[in-house]
Amino acid sequence: MQHRRTRFLAVLGVVLALLVAAVTPAAASYRHGPRPTVVLVHGAWADGSSWARVTSRLIDDGYQVRVPPNPLRNLTTDAATIRDFLSTLSGPIVLVGHSYGGAVVTNAATGNPNVKALVYVDAFAPAEGEVIFPLAGADSALAVPPETVFDFVPYPGAPAGDVDLYLKHDTFVTSFASGVPRSQAEKLYPAQRPLTLSAGFTPSGPPAWATIPSWYVLGTRDLIITPTAQQFMATRAGSTVTRISTGHLGLLTDPGPVTAVIEQAARAAR
């Protein structure tokens, strides 16, 4: 009797261990390889806090997340900054870019074998030689005389003719932050980080999306990078597209679907 009881307990222990392994994320990561680190790159007129709601969800789901600052100075050097940051990470990486951050990750990931997936969120995905501003689309809120949407501000050491571009108040709260509650948009406006004029006209290099699988979250109400422009870039990149009914800041207003796409890419990367 004692022998049977001991054997039963041993079998029960094995069954329980298998059940725990089936539901524990850490165990799953051992079976399929380590979970990728998710690196989130913000765009212009924003900072890393724009990713806060997505970051929180990813961390709660067990992912390592990094949100390095994007300098917003020049596409070539901005990409080099992110590329150098990526070089300090070990293991697989899912690299995510919002808006101008999409152009940065397109360049930063090229040649890095650890980057297993790219995710674009209402983002630029330029081809080699393209500059970002024309890619926003003919009906973009930015496709107007620049003095009507930007405040031009000098900065120290600027090349001749270069300036910092700040979005004017009405452009920020009604177009850039379309879909964000007005009270929140008004609080975001004063803290916007500028993009240099030259960054918007720096030719992009060889695109990482040509060799790395990509996913694209397309905001169907985006007034900054039009849905038509986004669809063109996503199709050209061969991205898996998810359309959500948001404006340009879907990562703030609808972080759930954005997080879901990032995690889909992370699972594929494993």
Automatic annotation (TrEMBL):
Keyword field: Hydrolase
Short name of one Pfam family: Abhydrolase_6
Single GO MF descriptor: hydrolase activity
Gene3D superfamilies recorded: alpha/beta hydrolase
Highest taxon of the lineage: Bacteria
Domain AB hydrolase-1: 38-258
UniProt-listed InterPro entries: AB_hydrolase_1, AB_hydrolase_fold, Sec-Metab_Biosynth_Hydrolase
PANTHER family per record: AB HYDROLASE-1 DOMAIN-CONTAINING PROTEIN-RELATED, ESTERASE_LIPASE_THIOESTERASE DOMAIN-CONTAINING PROTEIN
Protein name per the record: Alpha/beta hydrolase
Species: Kribbella sp. HUAS MG21
